[in-house]
């Protein structure tokens, strides 16, 4: 766990996503909770060591790598209204599907037998500002990666937790994205003067880290656009997977996971192109 500024901690190496916490004189705010239950418990015990009271847990989006450890915290969960809707609609099969991701590691898969979803109880749409224990903390809608995606902005420290809007060294996930909005958002972030960005995945960074994400989204849009405009079907457009897969490195065992992520992105961007260029 790294203290990136006084009382602001980030754990960068759990499987799935970065998690953080902000300590105030009145209690602590936890930002995202790990995917794997053992990591979730570990995260809760680390937070307990630095603070005796967790006020809120905040989820940057509704994806499993940000929410599955919520149950290990005895505090209400805050999320964007759209994230709440997505989580509220998860079926019982959601945990089963999570288990399935780890079918090659039965000891990890088995941990999900005790997992229950702890849903957000407090939601917002634009910006929710918390003034507590000498800190000012803004929960702010970002969009782009998903319509729900939200960040945490600390105006005094000039630190922004971006959720999956910024990821470092891995394929951004476009499966539920609004890719044009995402590009515009990254352009706006580049104009901000920030001390740090805490990305959804990857090491601590700053606005320069938005560059490769923008390039990736632009490349994806242009490749899918040319498929669409040449009259190729969505399944034919899957040739783009091979054109994109080496854009960022991945662990050999993760190839099919990465391909799936790219395929979902192609499908999503293809649908966006339909809206822009029409059906024929
Ligand atoms: Zn996400």
Give the gist of this structure.
Helix content is 35%, strand content 23%. It is an alpha/beta fold.
List the topology elements.
Blueprint: E1 2-5, E2 8-11, E3 19-24, E4 27-31, H1 37-50, E5 54-58, H2 64-67, E6 77-80, H3 81-88, H4 93-101, H5 106-109, E7 122-124, E8 127-132, E9 135-141, E10 150-154, E11 159-167, H6 179-190, E12 196-201, H7 210-229, H8 240-244, H9 255-277
Parallel strand pairs: 4-5, 5-6, 6-7, 11-12
Antiparallel strand pairs: 1-2, 2-3, 3-4, 8-9, 9-10, 10-11
Helix pairs in contact: 6-7, 7-9
Bound molecules: zinc ion.
Describe the structure.
With 280 residues, the chain is α/β, with parallel strands linked by helices. It has 9 helices and 12 strands. The strands form 2 sheets. A 7-stranded mixed sheet has the order 1-2-3-4-5-6-7. Strands 8-9-10-11-12 form a 5-stranded mixed sheet, with no helix packed on it. The chain has 2 domains: 210 residues, Ribonuclease Z/Hydroxyacylglutathione hydrolase-like (Metallo-beta-lactamase, Chain A, 4-Layer Sandwich), CATH 3.60.15.10; 63 residues, no CATH class. 38% of the residues are buried. The chain is globular. Zinc ion (ZN) binds next to loops.
Helix percent reads 25-40%
Cofactors, ions, other ligands: zinc ion
The largest β sheet comes out as: 7 strands, mixed
Strand order of the largest sheet: 1-2-3-4-5-6-7
CATH superfamily of the largest domain: Ribonuclease Z/Hydroxyacylglutathione hydrolase-like
Q: What integer value in Å does the Rg equal? A: 19 Å
CATH architecture of the largest domain: 4-Layer Sandwich
Number of domains: 2
Treating each run of at least 4 consecutive H or I residues as one helix, how many helices?
Answer: 9
Mean pLDDT score = 96
What order do the SSEs take from the amino end to the carboxyl end, as H and E?
EEEEHEHEHHHEEEEEHEHHH
The separation of the N and C termini measures: 52 Å
Structural class: alpha/beta
Shape by Cα distribution? globular
Which parts are unreliable, with pLDDT below 50 for 5 consecutive residues or more?
none
β-sheet strand percentage: 15-25%
CATH topology of the largest domain: Metallo-beta-lactamase, Chain A
């Amino acid at each position: 766990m790294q203290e990136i500024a006084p009382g602001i901690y980030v754990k960068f190496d759990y499987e799935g996503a970065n998690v953080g916490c902000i300590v105030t004189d009145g209690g602590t705010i936890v930002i995202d909770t790990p995917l794997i239950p053992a990591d979730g418990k570990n995260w809760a015990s680390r937070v307990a060591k630095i603070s005796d009271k967790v006020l809120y847990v905040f989820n940057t989006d509704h994806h499993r790598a940000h929410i599955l450890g919520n149950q290990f915290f005895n505090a209400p969960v805050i999320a964007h209204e759209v994230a709440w809707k997505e989580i509220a609609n998860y079926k019982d099969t959601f945990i089963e599907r999570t288990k399935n991701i780890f079918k090659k590691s039965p000891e990890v898969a088995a941990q999900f037998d005790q997992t229950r979803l702890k849903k957000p109880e407090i939601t917002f749409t634009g910006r929710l500002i918390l003034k507590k224990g000498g800190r000012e903390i803004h929960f702010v809608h970002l969009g782009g990666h998903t319509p729900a995606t939200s960040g945490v902005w600390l105006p005094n420290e000039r630190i922004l937790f971006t959720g999956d809007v910024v990821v470092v060294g891995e394929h951004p996930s476009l499966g539920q994205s609004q890719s044009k909005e995402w590009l515009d958002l990254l352009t706006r972030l580049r104009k901000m003067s920030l001390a740090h960005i805490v990305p959804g995945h990857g090491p601590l960074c700053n606005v320069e880290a938005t560059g490769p994400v923008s390039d990736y989204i632009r490349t994806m849009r242009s490749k899918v656009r040319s498929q669409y405009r040449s009259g190729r079907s969505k399944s034919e457009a899957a040739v783009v997977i091979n054109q994109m897969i080496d854009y960022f490195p991945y662990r050999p065992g993760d190839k099919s996971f990465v391909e799936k992520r790219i395929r979902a992105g192609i499908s999503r961007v293809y649908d966006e192109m339909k809206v822009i260029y029409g059906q024929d």
